[in-house]
């Protein structure tokens, strides 16, 4: 089997998460800050169409990092064109992935392509983060908890690499068994993606932006869906009763997928 099968460690730039109903246009999902798109596996199984995940080049220590978020988005547009040569395109991103998805959608429209769906899972514009303190390696490692579907705030005692990996392995998370180089890549991705976001200035997407807001989070902050108004022609808001870190959990996925299915079919018609 090893001799005949193509090798796929799940850490490539573009990975296939589902190939259901291949006659439908695919959904492309963009990684959060940790650079890995495995967090969308539940959504991919439920959405009823092919799903491909974009993953950060920072996961590969041999690859150079992009100079800007626009350059990263352009490389991702090139990657999805290898799967789907022309529109209409469907894009979805959680957290930082939403900022990248917006940049990709803007580039696709500038090139004359149609974008049927641009969905952002609790992402907020780049200007919201310019004054925030830069994350350190500990914060980057704790991002693994969110990628694996856990709320990092619920596990304040997990601070070291070994503590976090032991916890993930005991919970039978595949992320707990990432090779050391890939873990270093996750840390590299978190730190570098924050740099890219701070230096990013949004273009304007001339379509409908769907913002799926974490209704149980952001109290007492200025993080509201309407911040996207100046960066899109129209805004559609769907609020769900979850925290930001829970938006790819099975419970949140069960609520979000029916809304996404409806939007995908409606926009296509």
SSE blueprint:
Elements: E1 14-18, E2 27-30, H1 41-46, E3 51-54, H2 69-81, E4 89-94, H3 96-110, E5 115-121, H4 137-147, H5 161-170, H6 180-198, E6 205-214, E7 232-240, H7 250-268
Parallel strand pairs: 2-3, 2-4, 4-5, 5-6, 6-7
Antiparallel strand pairs: 1-3
Helix pairs in contact: 2-3, 4-6
The share of residues in extended strands comes to 15-25%
The helix/strand order is EEHEHEHEHHHEEH
Radius of gyration (CA) equals 18 Å
Q: Which stretches are poorly predicted, pLDDT < 50 over at least 5 residues?
A: none
Tell me about the largest β-sheet.
Answer: 7 strands, mixed
Q: What characteristic shape results from the CA principal axes?
A: globular
Classify the secondary structure makeup into a structural class.
Answer: alpha/beta
Overall pLDDT metric = 90
| Number of helical stretches of at least 4 residues | 7
Strand order of the largest sheet: 1-3-2-4-5-6-7
Strand tally is: 7
Detailed description of the structure:
- There is one protein chain.
- By secondary structure, this protein is an alpha/beta fold.
- Helices cover 35% and strands 17% of the residues.
- It contains seven helices and seven strands, in the order ββαβαβαβαααββα.
- The protein has helices spanning 41-46, 69-81, 96-110, 137-147, 161-170, 180-198, 250-268, and strands spanning 14-18, 27-30, 51-54, 89-94, 115-121, 205-214, 232-240.
- Strands 1-3-2-4-5-6-7 form a seven-stranded mixed sheet, sandwiched between helices.
- α3 (96-110) links the parallel β4 and β5 (115-121).
- α2 crosses α3 (96-110).
- The radius of gyration is 18 Å and the shape is globular.
């Amino acid at each position: 089997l090893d001799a005949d099968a193509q090798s796929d460690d799940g850490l490539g730039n573009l990975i296939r998460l589902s190939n259901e109903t291949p006659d439908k246009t695919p959904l492309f999902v963009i990684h959060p800050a940790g650079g890995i798109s495995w967090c969308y596996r539940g959504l991919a199984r439920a959405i009823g169409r092919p799903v491909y995940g974009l993953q950060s080049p920072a996961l590969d220590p041999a690859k150079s990092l992009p100079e800007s978020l626009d350059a990263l988005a352009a490389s991702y547009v090139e990657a999805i064109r290898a799967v789907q040569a022309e529109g209409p395109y469907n894009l979805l991103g959680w957290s930082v992935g939403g900022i990248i998805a917006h940049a990709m959608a803007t580039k696709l429209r500038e090139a004359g392509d149609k974008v049927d769906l641009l969905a952002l899972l609790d992402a907020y514009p780049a200007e919201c983060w310019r004054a925030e303190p830069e994350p350190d390696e500990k914060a980057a490692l704790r991002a693994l908890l969110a990628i694996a579907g856990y709320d990092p705030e619920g596990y304040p005692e997990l601070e070291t690499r070994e503590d976090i990996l032991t916890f993930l392995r005991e919970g039978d998370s595949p992320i707990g068994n990432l090779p050391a180089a890939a873990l270093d890549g996750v840390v590299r991705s978190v730190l570098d993606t924050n740099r890219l976001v701070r230096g990013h200035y949004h273009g304007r997407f001339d379509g409908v932006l769907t913002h799926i807001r974490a209704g149980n989070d952001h109290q007492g902050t200025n993080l509201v869906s309407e911040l996207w108004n100046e960066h899109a022609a129209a805004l559609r808001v769907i609020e769900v009763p979850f925290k930001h870190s829970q938006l790819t959990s099975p419970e949140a996925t069960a609520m979000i997928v029916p809304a996404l299915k409806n939007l995908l079919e409606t926009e296509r018609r």
